[in-house]
Design a protein that fits this description.
single chain, 189 residues, alpha/beta, Rossmann fold, seven-stranded mixed beta sheet, 22% strand
Length: 189
């Protein structure tokens, strides 16, 4: 069983902000595959359990807010008895320009508070990741930038990287060798 976690913040004021790109990807995946998320209070997340090409997969959008994402991740992993190597987390990355994607098998938190929370709570950094570039604007405070909406000219780049991320999810679920996924998507121009 696989677990796909998209990071973001709940609430209308955060809808379609840069920091919610993990939610955006999971919403796109649900739309394409015609399923809906249901709130699970005990797991602190919106959850969907879906059979994808014969593979039972859990999709989760934590409701703990970004900085406490590890709380929901740990509860879901424990409840469903998910192996850490079967977890894929999707999140925004200011160190990548908008429209870029990087797939990682393991890594540190890179200053991302949601990933830091997951690593600290799980006591492991050995989960897979899709890092989605949102760029940076050094003329404004970081929190204002990541909680801001994408600019009009960034929307086509966002759509392309969201669709690319959907393809990565499909390949992850289908048990494709993860280093091959990394090679394929990390070397694209």
């Amino acid at each position: 069983m696989k677990l796909i976690i998209g990071l973001g913040n709940i609430g209308d004021k955060y809808f379609e902000t840069r920091h919610n790109v993990g939610f955006i990807v999971l919403d796109r995946y649900a739309s394409l595959n015609k399923f809906e998320y249901k709130f699970d209070k005990d797991l602190e997340a919106f959850i969907a359990i879906v059979n994808v090409n014969g593979n039972k997969t859990i999709f989760a959008k934590p409701t703990t807010y970004m900085n406490l994402s590890g709380n929901a991740a740990a509860k879901i992993i424990k409840y469903y008895k998910i192996n850490i190597e079967d977890v894929l987390v999707i999140y925004d990355d200011v160190d990548l320009e908008c429209g870029r994607v990087r797939v990682r098998e393991t890594n540190g938190h890179g200053g991302h508070n949601g990933i830091r929370s997951i690593i600290d709570t799980l006591g492991s950094k050995d989960f897979k990741r899709i890092r989605i570039g949102i760029g940076i604007d050094k003329t404004m405070p970081l929190d204002h930038y990541v909680l801001g909406k994408f600019k009009k000219e960034e929307i086509p780049l966002l759509r392309a990287v969201v669709d690319e991320s959907v393809n990565i999810i499909d390949e992850f679920i289908s048990e494709k060798y993860f280093k091959d996924i990394m090679t394929k998507y990390n070397t694209q121009t």
